[in-house]
Amino acid sequence: MTIREDVGAFLASHADEGYRAFQAKLIPNIDAATIVGVRTPELRKFAKGLARREDAGEFLAALPHGTFEENQLHSFVIAQERDFDKLVGEIERFLPFVDNWATCDQLSCRGLAANPDAALAKARSWLESDHEYTVRFAIGVLMELFLDERFRLEFFAWVIGVSRPEYYVNMMRAWYFAEALAKQPAAAEAVIASGALDAWTHNKAIQKAVESRRISPEQKDRLRAMKR
């Protein structure tokens, strides 16, 4: 069988109607008919085999995919690429076809850490995209790779400067600042205190931070007092 036939057979044999219904509720912005209902651990395991196949490129080139699970497999396959330039190329080819938060967030950016300077430049360019989930992915890269020892205060300005109406972009902005409140508490709390964020993202970041066990009780009290 071809790789695409193998993928189809795998999905059909691992479909779970109950899980499909559960996934459809979590990802309401995509057509429920495109969800097969295959659990993530099974997809990850299958993707490892796909990535080793000589014809893996045939599957990666078959865009757009017809199902949510094929998009998930695509994310898991390209995450195994160890060559930085090839990884960036595959990410950029795939991002325009990402149509939901789950696939976006499963697209691992860890391999980009192999070349932090180039990864940062790419993240900056992706923030300027017209595509909702490319912007969400860019913020995710800043959150995963540039909130610890590589952090620079200007990154906050980049995320603050994202002005878009989409729920899933602004939820990621809130998640970013909630993480920043744990990893860069003084600098992030100063941003919250300044009121630089729009009210919705401001309050959602506080909500997510207050729910975190990494935030001290004293900091939580200060953040609650800053709600708008």
What would you note in describing this structure?
With 228 residues, this protein is mainly α. The chain has helices at 3-13, 17-26, 40-52, 56-61, 68-78, 84-94, 101-106, 116-126, 132-145, 154-160, 167-183, 185-194, 199-210, 217-224. Helix 3 crosses helix 5 (68-78) and helix 11 crosses helix 12 (185-194). It is built from 14 helices and no strands. 64% of the residues lie in helices and 0% in strands.
Index terms:
single chain; 228 residues; mainly alpha; 64% helix
- Can you summarize the main beta sheet? none
The tally of strands reads 0
Mean pLDDT: 96
List low-pLDDT spans. none
Please state the structural category.
mainly alpha
> Helical segment tally?
14
Distance between the termini: 58 Å
Oligomer: single chain
Short description:
It contains 14 helices and no strands. The chain is mainly α.
Reconstruct the topology from this structure.
Elements: H1 3-13, H2 17-26, H3 40-52, H4 56-61, H5 68-78, H6 84-94, H7 101-106, H8 116-126, H9 132-145, H10 154-160, H11 167-183, H12 185-194, H13 199-210, H14 217-224
Helix pairs in contact: 3-5, 8-9, 9-11, 11-12, 11-13, 13-14
